[in-house]
Amino acid sequence: MGKILIKDCTIVPISGPVIEEGVIAINDDRLHYVGPAGGVPAGWQADTVIEAGDMVALPGLVNSHTHAAMTLLRSFADDLPLKQWLEEKIWPREAKLEREDIYWGTKLALLEMIRSGTTTFADMYFHMDAVAEAVVEAGLRACLSQGLIGFQDRGGQRLATGVSLVKEWHGAGDGRVTTMLGPHAPYTCPPEYLTKVAETAAGLGVGLHIHLAETKEEVENVRAQYGYTPVALAAKLGLFELPTLAAHCVHLTTEEIALLAEKKVGVAHCPESNLKLASGVAPVAAMLAAGVNVAIGTDGAASNNNLDMVAEMRTCALLAKGITGDPTVVPAHQALVMATLNGARALGLEKEIGTLEAGKKADLILVNKHQPHLMPPHDVEANLVYAARGSDVDTVIVNGKILMAAGEVKTMDAGEIYAQVMKRAGRGQKKFHLLPRLRG
Ligand SMILES: CSC[C@H]1O[C@@H](n2cnc3c(O)ncnc32)[C@H](O)[C@@H]1O
Ligand SMILES: [Zn+2]
């Protein structure tokens, strides 16, 4: 790690106004100084100097809801509604995935995330020890939950696996890995099981990561079966007494929005997945107005179909305007806050990451602004949200370590990952052919 000095960049700290010709000093894993040139203490000597005159620095993006290893199922099942997509395509294929498949699918996801500026993500899937291993190796930060399905007779066994993940991996990778328990959804976890999971999480001192109110059908079915909507059921069972990260929250009443705000539930808004599965459009403007902590997630690459948080920010802002008929909702700064600080808060990490401030962990990205589609920079934040692309990210630093410099990922072998994924993704289905130039 050591000392890194980033010189002459435009800084978007999120916590305050944009700083032109700024300087960022990093000391091991933390930000030592963020501000105008001249503010670095005299005699402070860097081991690495990054000349960043062409760059915009901002906090690393936080993908608040994904299933990383679903990169293996990218373009495997498209143009279907959620229930059919899950029941007829995804779950039968997932049942055949082995631990090593998930490890390599996650590696591919991490490579995609690093290259598009995500430094932290919340993940819910199976074989999460393999995910944790991949995260520790790649250098990213992640909040990991074993996905728990309570129906069938293996709910107890799955919960035990989730508990082991917490005990064995919480704090791993110099604190970069944190954990939660991940009850999948009220339609796959009966109330007694949700209660048991919540009690277990309380005992472990961790939060919950759950899919909630994603489709109209879910709301109607859960209400018909249990007498409560998904949000009301989760509240009644005490889930919201714990830190809860709720993915989607598309179909909500005004009362439920107020409840999510009161209980400080972190909402992972996944606009592109919701659009593609035609699940609906989450009431983001209303949630923000009511004080709900709304973050942004991509969901998995099988429903998005990418993990590009720069694109997701843009979709989030545009969709909120389109659906309300009000162009003033979710302005650029708000979209950036959602993709950084709100994401950090939803994962319980707001004291450590989410803004560029001295004392916080050194998780940041540099975006190359010297490109035709980012000129002129009348408003840097607007350019980042409305004009930038994930591929504009040049440099990624997590916990004070450079993971990507000048577009080159330092901690991963892309050729090996592509070869492994091509071998595993089509197993038992179809054969993929790897071009010679992609072979490891
Ligand atoms: C139990 S591990 C996670 C589980 O969630 C599935 N999944 C992926 N995307 C969605 C979504 O949008 N709604 C509900 N469930 C989803 C994934 O395939 C895994 O089985
Ligand atoms: Zn999901």
Automatic annotation (TrEMBL):
Family, per entry: Belongs to the metallo-dependent hydrolases superfamily. MTA/SAH deaminase family.
Domain Amidohydrolase-related residue range list: 57-403
CDD domains, alphabetized: ATZ_TRZ_like (cd01298)
Give the HAMAP family listed for this entry: MTA_SAH_deamin
Q: What is this protein called?
A: 5-methylthioadenosine/S-adenosylhomocysteine deaminase
Q: Which UniProt keywords apply?
A: Hydrolase, Metal-binding, Zinc
**Which cofactor does this sequence's record say it needs?**
Zn(2+)
GO molecular function terms listed in the Swiss-Prot or TrEMBL record: 5'-methylthioadenosine deaminase activity; metal ion binding; S-adenosylhomocysteine deaminase activity
Q: Quote the record's binding site residues for Zn(2+).
A: H65, H67, H211, D299
Q: What class of enzyme is it?
A: hydrolase
Q: What is the reaction catalyzed?
A: S-adenosyl-L-homocysteine + H2O + H(+) = S-inosyl-L-homocysteine + NH4(+); S-methyl-5'-thioadenosine + H2O + H(+) = S-methyl-5'-thioinosine + NH4(+)
The free-text note explaining how the cofactor binds reads: Binds 1 zinc ion per subunit.
Top-level taxon: Bacteria
Residues noted as binding substrate in the record, renumbered to the chain? E94, R158, H184, E214, D299
Described purpose of this protein according to its UniProt entry: Catalyzes the deamination of 5-methylthioadenosine and S-adenosyl-L-homocysteine into 5-methylthioinosine and S-inosyl-L-homocysteine, respectively. Is also able to deaminate adenosine.
| E.C. designation(s) | 3.5.4.28, 3.5.4.31
Q: Which Pfam families match?
A: Amidohydro_1
Matching InterPro entries:
Amidohydro-rel (IPR006680), Deaminase_MtaD/DadD (IPR023512), Metal-dep_hydrolase_composite (IPR011059), Metal_Hydrolase (IPR032466), MTA/SAH_deaminase (IPR050287)
Q: Does this UniProt record's set of keywords contain Transmembrane?
A: no
Supply the gene name: mtaD_1
